[in-house]
Amino acid sequence: MYNKDNPKSGFPDPLADPLKKQSKEYGLRYAKAIEAQWGKMTDKSSLHGSRNEVFNRNRQYANGTQDTTIYKKLLTSLNPNDGEGSLLNIDYTPVPILPKFVRIVVNKILSRNPYPNLEAVDPLSSSEKNKEKQRLRTQVAIKDDLKDLKEQTGGLVLDVDPDQLPDSLEEADIFLETNIKTDAEIAAQVATNMTLSWNNFNDGTYRRCVNDLAALGMAVVKRSNDPNYGIKTEYVDPSMFIHAYTEDPFFEDIVYAGHIKEMTVSELKRLAGDELTDQDLKKILKVASKKSDQYSVSRDFRNFNQKENYNEYMVQVMDFEFISVDCMYFEEKENRYGNTGFYYEGFNYKERQGSVYERTPYKMEMEILYGGTYIMGTNYVLNYGKSANVPKNVHDLSKCRLSYSPVATNLMDNMPKSMVDSCIGFADMLQITHLKLQQAIAKAKPDGLIIDIEGLENVQLGKGGELQPLELHDIYEQTGVFYYRSKNPEGGFQNPPVREIGNSIRNINELIGLYNHYLRLIRDTTGINEAMDASSPKGDALVGVRQQAIAAGNNAIYDITNASLVLFKKVCEDIVKCIQIIPPESVLMKVYQNAIGDTNMEVLSSFGDLPMYNFGVQVHKEMEDEEKQFLEQNIQVALSQKEIDLEDAMAIRDMKDINQAERLLVVRRKKRMKEMQAQAQQNSQMQSQQAQQAAMAASQAKQQEMQMEAQLKAQELQLKNQLEAQLEEVKHGFRREIEMIKAQATLGFRTEDQEFKEKLEVLKEDRKDERVKKQSTEQSKLISQRKGERGELSESAETPSIDVNEII
Fold first, then answer.
1. Is residue 639 classed exposed, middle or buried when 0-12, 13-18 and 19+ CB atoms within 10 A define those classes?
2. Which of 480, 478, 488 is nearest to 455 (CA)?
3. Does position 296 have pLDDT exceeding 70, yes or no?
4. What is the DSSP string of 635-649?
5. What whole-number distance in Å separates Cα of residue 595 and Cα of residue 575?
6. How far apart are CA 504 and CA 517, in angstroms?
7. Which residues contact 510 (CB under 8 A, 6 or more apart)?
């Protein structure tokens, strides 16, 4: 604290005049006060020394390179307090258990790849976004009409493609959360991502910071802003970081901060410019060489006076800055024309006396950032003064922030507590158990024998006929054979002279159980269980149990995850504010314009208007592997059941946030189900229409068939009647002809019959005369035969038969 009685002690007066605050004496006083408050780095009782000792120890354990002296002291055979004695011939290399857990935490946080999402929160941009959202909702509501208009006009009168619009208001809300941004927001986000990429922040600085959060419980990033050299993010070693006392793990209430770093004298000379002469540099090196116990100087200064090349020497400097409140004055006054004006008067305002016109002063309390570079152990301060190009919130110019962005997992008495620090005791016990296991294995004896030399005859007992205890021990250690003498009081032998010794590693199971016990304690302390580090066998636990175990692990490391996201957010907020104060005609502005491109710059017309907006930064993370796997399972189930299309699955996979992806999956499933229901209803209607049409067609066909049958019957009847009429006519003709023939035949037959009868009568008479004649001849022959006058008659002599038909 500042002491008025002794102005050379403590911090300088914070209420001093702004001109005095800008003097190097004020800055040197402030730097020396910071140096005195933190003390020497090598002094373990000082704040800086004690913190540095804890940080170095934590880093050694986090890397698996901790000092093994404590283990050797515990395992020495003679004096464990002094560490003097014979060491066991075992491997003292630390078991790399803590490095494994640190890597799991760091890789798990980095695997989600955070990225900034900038949202303008000022009333102007909020109004623009609300108008855009309302316009999109209106377009979604009249999407069908827009499609009809597109078909009619070919899309010439539309400024949006209706096919690219969401299908429902629910889907539009998801679209609005991720895609609706003003030109200023897009410009700021593009510029922020480019700045992070130029600084290799994600792969370099951020990785180191997350590793520091796990090992040290603290991480620091420094931002530097120069209109010509650009916006830079610099990693700061927490062991070299100094700051005002605070209990806030995000350091929002600190008024000063700085960090110690080493640089070559040539770099110091370049940094100082005209502020240091060669004689000043020589004095600095002499002071640094005398204080080598406090500040590590990497060169020998014995031959300093003979050397003029300063590149070989390293000195320690402290970059520091602090926030002070100064009054900025404005004045309201009248001119000779009676008009009133409001004028800026600066920080050193003195009210004018005896003015002709009325003057009214106004003041504004402004936080001003002062800073410089202090060469530790000397009386030199470089580049001290008001910090230029300090990023501020355009809507609250009275506030400013330090260029350092520190975060911690937790903070107590200005000392962070890390995950590694909580596990050091268990890691030591686990290492000792591991050494004890090696010791037990090294002392394991082979299977041997117990030999009673009293029960054997003619056995040589070594020189002098006796074996010393140490000799017996050496024989047992090397061969596993134990020699002894055993007699009962009567001189007889109680045991067989030769027996087997079944040796095994002593306490091996107990030591293994103890090792697993300390490993389990480390797991319980860190929260990294078997499911989280994927060391449990596949299928060993149910899916729900594994998910609960992973969730428990995520909860255990939440303080590290949250601190890393807060750090990322702070860096992005500083970058956005730095971009907003880039002069429009500066080289850096042209660099950003060239990087974005002329075409994009024309689209991002609000790039030059960024100072008008107040941006809020939200840090989003990509999905974890478990979330991606769970989402992919849901996608595959939905695809297998045809609840979504392939295009829907691709759109869902492109989402980076698991909540938005799940919401989009639900929306697309509902949309698909409605489409399927509409299609099923349409198919049902079509089937019903087809059935009706088929029934009508069948009815019509039946009616047509009946009409055809009736027509055929009518035609058949008509044809039959015609045929019958024709037949009757033909029959009538035939009958008439027959009757005529009959009549003619009857007339002709009568004449012919008379003639025939007459001819028949004549023929009958002729034939009758011939038959009578033949009968007479035959009778005459028969009479002659009877009388024997002739022989038998031949067949040819028989009387021929008369055929009446021939006669006819």
1. middle
2. 488
3. no
4. HHHHHHTTSS-HHHH
5. 16
6. 23
7. none
Residue indicated by tokens 């909540």: 659
Beta carbons within 10 angstroms of residue 233's beta carbon: 22
CB 259 within 8 A of CB 222: yes
3-17, 76-90, 112-126, 773-787: which range is least confident on average? 76-90
Give how far Cα 330 sits from Cα of 337, 344, 386, 388, Å.
21, 5, 20, 21
What gap in Å lies between CA 448 and CA 475, rounded to an integer? Answer: 11
Q: How far is Cα 274 from Cα 485, in angstroms, rounded to an integer? A: 93
Long-range CB contact pairs, 64-69, < 8 A, 24+: 64/94, 64/95, 64/96, 64/97, 64/98, 64/99, 65/94, 66/94, 66/427, 68/92, 68/93, 68/94
Number of neighbouring beta carbons within 10 Å of residue 179: 9
Distance of CA 87 to the CA centre of its chain: 51
SS3 per-residue string spanning 738-785: HHHHHHHHHHHHHHHHHHHHHHHHHHHHHHHHHHHHHHHHHHHHHHHH
**Predicted confidence (pLDDT) per residue in 99-146, tens digit:** 999 998 898 888 878 878 777 776 666 676 677 777 777 877 777 777
* Nearest alpha-carbon partner for 557 in 422, 692, 730, 725: 422
pLDDT for the residue 2: 37
Q: What is the C-alpha to C-alpha distance for residues 677 and 683, in angstroms, rounded to an integer?
A: 9
* Tokens of residue 50, six digits: 């004690």
Mean of the per-residue pLDDT values for the chain?
Answer: 76
* pLDDT of the residue at 4: 41
Cα distances (angstroms) measured from residue 712 to each of 700, 705, 726: 17, 10, 20
CA distance linking residue 535 with residue 674, whole number of Å: 44
- Write the DSSP assignment of 176-229 as a string of letters: HHHH---HHHHHHHHHHHHHHHHTTIIIIIHHHHHHHHHHTSEEEEEEEEETTT
Of 255, 300, 331, nearest to 12 by C-alpha is: 255
- Residue 221 in this model has a pLDDT that exceeds 90: yes
In 273-368, where does DSSP find H-type helix?
A: 278-290
Tell me the angle at which helices 558-580 and 97-110 cross, rounded to the nearest 10 degrees.
Answer: 50
Cα–Cα dist 779/403, whole Å: 181
Contacts of 573 (CB under 8 A, 6+ apart): 615, 617
Neighbours of 81 (CB within 10 A): 7
**Residue 802 pLDDT greater than 70, yes or no:** no
First to last CA, the chain: 180
| DSSP code string of 31-57 | HHHHHHHH--SS-TTSHHHHHHHHHHH
Angle at which helices 646-653 and 625-640 cross, to 10°: 170
Neighbours of 507 (CB within 10 A): 14
- CA Rg value for the chain: 60
For 585-641, how does the pLDDT look when each residue is reduced to its tens digit (9 = 90+)? 777 777 777 776 655 555 555 555 666 666 777 776 666 666 777 778 888 888 887
Band of residue 405 on the pLDDT scale cut at 50, 70, 90: very high
HSE-up of residue 316 (Cα within 13 Å, Cβ side)? 21
524 vs 517: CA distance, rounded Å: 10
Per-residue model confidence (pLDDT) at position 305: 45
Query: Do 192 and 619 form a contact (C-beta atoms < 8 A)?
Result: no
> Which pair of structure tokens corresponds to residue 523?
């797991």
Within 8 A by CB and 6+ apart from 291, the residues are 377
Q: Which of 240, 61, 103 is nearest to 560 (CA)?
A: 103
Q: Rounded to two decimals, what is the model's pTM?
A: 0.69
The residue whose two tokens read 């230029």 is: 388
